[in-house]
Structures are given as structure tokens and as C-alpha cells.
């Protein structure tokens, strides 16, 4: 803890002076983050560091397993964060980011690890669909490979949950919100993105278009055309 306190003091003395104008602007005018990123609480996965973000760039929500409960099942911090980001801050891009060697996914695939942790076990029920996909769709994988597959499939499942949130569903219908599914390989320092067209993850490359899970485009199920009232 003393080491962390030392870093706080270093920030005040060495870092803040060089960025004081930025912080003053943010304090005076508020925030306008470019994206909402929902990532795992794992200490090795730091969204701001990975994306080289400046203060004010990212609205971040972190929890065990980068989980987004379906809208109707649980009111809480994740739901409130999503709603505020979309409705109050006008965020147009939402990223759900899983990662390699995820402890939550290890527990999902090895339930005995959850003994004595009833809250974690209850929370991971929101990833049960990913577990079923891996157990039934990847029967040949080793346990380690299964954990990685679960982390990838979990991103897909949480994107589906995200679309049940009214603010997100409405934003998608208006064509104002893009959804992104990412996977960070800790050891390789590589980021993979879900391509909605193929359903597969591909490594993000500087010279290639960014794969997007659900690109922003107006979407309405009804084919009824509503006529505007005459002036």
C-alpha cells in the first residue's frame, strides 16, 4: 500500500502539472467520453493503459468476467452505467472486452473453484450460456483451451445481453450505436475483435478495417412507413 501511496504523490507532483490544462477543461466542461468499455476487473487488464487513453476518453465499467446482466434480470451498477453512458453522455460505441487466463472463466468451467464464494457463483450464472456453448460445441478441447473458448464465447453472450437494455436497443434502432466485442491476449499483448459478419474474432491490424460486432445502422423491424404531417 505504501508503494501505491507513493504513486499518488508522484502523480500530484510529476504528472498532474503537465496535464493541468486538460484536467481544468474536464472540471469546467464535464466529460464527453468516446466510448463505454465494459471489461474484466482483472488487475492485468487496464482499459486506459491498453487504449492509451487520456482522462475523459473512456467511460469504463469493470467487473468479474466482463458481464452485462440482461436488463430485466438485475438492476445494479452495470445496468446503471450502461444507461447513463448512452442516455446522459451520448456514447455511440460500446466495447465488451474479455481476456486470456480469465479467473472468472476458469471458475465457470471448473465449478469446484466456486466453493465458499456464493456471490461469485450467482454472478457467473449470467455466463451460463457461454459454458453450455463450450461444453457442447467444443467437446475436444482441453481444460485450458476450454477456458479460452469460454472467454471468447462469453463476449458474444454479453453482447446479446447488452442489446436487451432499452437505451441500447433504442440507440441501435436509431442507427446511433455500434457494439464491439474484444478479446485481449495478455501474454501476446494482442487485441482481437469480433466480426459480426463472420462470427469470428480476428486480430486488430493497423492496415485492416476494424472488425465490428454490430455496426451502427438504422434498424427497424416494422416495414410500415410513417407519413409526416403536412405543413
UniProtKB/TrEMBL annotation:
InterPro entries noted in UniProt: Beta_CA_cladeB, Carbonic_anhydrase, Carbonic_anhydrase_CS, Carbonic_anhydrase_sf
Catalytic activity: hydrogencarbonate + H(+) = CO2 + H2O
EC numbers for this chain: 4.2.1.1
Record has Lyase as a keyword: yes
SMART domains according to UniProt: Pro_CA
Pfam family, one: Pro_CA
Key words of the record: Lyase, Metal-binding, Zinc
Cofactor(s) named in the record: Zn(2+)
Purpose of the protein: Reversible hydration of carbon dioxide.
Protein family membership: Belongs to the beta-class carbonic anhydrase family.
Annotated protein name in UniProt: Carbonic anhydrase
Native species: Sphingomonas glacialis
